[in-house]
Amino acid sequence: MLQLIRRIDKQIEVSFNHLPWFLRYTVGILFFLAIMWFISEWWPKIYEVGNEFGRELYRYFHK
């Protein structure tokens, strides 16, 4: 499994290096924006669930 991951990673690296510099920067910026969108979309939901879980733990241990 690890060998498969390494092979795929190497293929991605080789194909990425064949791109011109401005396309590499564009892909990098788009990838960064996608990560920022994902975090901004899911962080409030994750925070809310964690906050509710923390309140339940507090109630359980501080009766």
TrEMBL record:
The chain crosses the membrane at residues 21-39. Keywords: Membrane, Transmembrane, Transmembrane helix. It comes from the Bacteria. This is Uncharacterized protein.
